[in-house]
Amino acid sequence: MERPTTPRISVAMSVYNGERFLALAIESILAQTFGDFEFLILDDGSKDATTQIIQDYAAKDARIHPILRENRGLIVSLNQLLAEARAPIIARMDADDIAYPQRFARQYAFLQANPDHAVVGCANEDIDDHGQPWPVDAPPYPTTFDDFLRAAEKSLPLISHPGVMYRRDPVLSVGGYHAAFRHCEDLDLWLRLASITKLANLTEPLIRYRHYPEQVSSRHATEQQIGAAVARIAYMERKAGRPDPTIGIKALPPIDDLDTLFGRPGVAQAVRARVAQGLLYSKAGLRDSGFDLILRHLREGGTRKGMWRTVARLIRFGEPARAIRLATTLASTATVAG
Q1: CB of 180 within 8 A of CB of 246?
Q2: Residue 114, domain member (yes or no)
Q3: 224 in a domain, yes or no?
Q4: Record's superkingdom (predicted)?
Q5: Are 211 and 126 in contact (CB under 8 A)?
Q6: Angle at CA 94, nearest 5°, toward 214 and 98?
Q7: pLDDT tier for residue 338 given thresholds of 50, 70 and 90
């Protein structure tokens, strides 16, 4: 059906097998105090009740426009939503989070008052899968562009993807979401946008961000950390005036091939060093290939900060064999270093 008027905001949600939390997420968008939006919900080939839930809500609210198709992955879905959105401003939303009613009003007002900014995020209220508070030990998101640049230099958190609102044209001008940065596509996008526009966050919590074992950041911890490390190195390459070799590639190569990709030695080792520290508190990362990456980092003479505490952490995680391997590696590398 033809949609005659152009809304001020296009809400972009991609969902795959999201039946557990989807209704709450949709209802939080429909309850926004700022109601001039279209709500694009892309079902990326779900096999549960997701499709039916979307169709049921679409029958009740004409602002919802379902996009139903086979599975192609999140990055393809996000770029498709960008292409199909009619509004000049996009509000991202995930199918497992909850937006506060004033979210769109606050962020839209910021973008209207700050035409030099293309991206505005917000603070999160972190919750678990039952909606109860989830403790997070992390610095707040940067509230000004200068703070953003300082946070980028220090590898600190930048912007929460499901709580972001951005101008469509600048995002398209830098190529949208890049396929190579699977599971950290948002970080790569923010760092590329920083060269052409300003980004900031509101201090007010405007989404309830859900943490649970099945979410992407838990299931793909090591891949996400590797991609984030490469994205930050690519950012520094651009900042130094050197070409970014990740532009245009469809997938990141193995870590050992990164020196060749960037055309200089030391990149692979730097990535392992970043990732090793990022995985020390990740139960999923310590149980998957990230553990072997940590061991190699130590054998390469990498920092041992926090490693002995990780031995105890592995025991608490029910991984005594890995705790012994890590302790043995720490002891042997200490001997070599001495």
Answers
A1: yes
A2: yes
A3: no
A4: Bacteria
A5: yes
A6: 95
A7: very low
Structural domain containing residue 106: 9-218
- How many residues are given for the chain? 338
Query: What do you get for the CA distance between the two ends of the chain, in Å?
Result: 73
- 297's CB contacts (< 8 A; 6+ apart) are 272, 273, 275, 276
Region 77-103 average pLDDT: 98
Per-residue three-class SS string for 237-300: HHHCCCCCCCCCCCCCCCHHHHHHHHCCCCHHHHHHHHHHHHCCCCHHHHHCCHHHHHHHHHHC
- Residue of 214, 1, 7 whose CA lies nearest to 96: 214
- pTM of the entire structure? 0.94
Same domain, 211 and 172: yes
Residue 148 lies in a domain: yes
How far, CA to CA in Å, does 45 sit from each of 20, 50, 59, 75, 131? 16, 9, 20, 14, 27
pLDDT in tens, 129-179: 999 999 998 899 999 999 999 999 999 999 999 999 999 999 999 999 999
Q: What's phi and psi for 252, nearest 5 deg?
A: -75, 140
Is 144:137 a contact under the CB 8 Å cutoff?
no
* CA 223 distance to own-chain centroid: 12
- 199 forms beta bridges with 119
Reduced to 3 states (helix: H, G, I; strand: E, B; else coil), residue 31 is coil
Instruction: Give the angle 102-26-40 at the CA atoms, nearest 5°.
Output: 100
How far is the C-alpha of 36 from the C-alpha of 207, rounded, in Å?
19
184 with 243, same domain: the answer is: no
Cα separation, 127 vs 206, whole angstroms: 13
- Reported as half-sphere exposure (CB side, CA atoms, 13 A), residue 20 has a value of 12
Task: Look up residue 216 and give its two tokens.
Answer: 């992407």
- Cα(227)–Cα(187) distance, rounded to whole angstroms? 9
* Mean per-residue pLDDT over the chain, rounded: 95
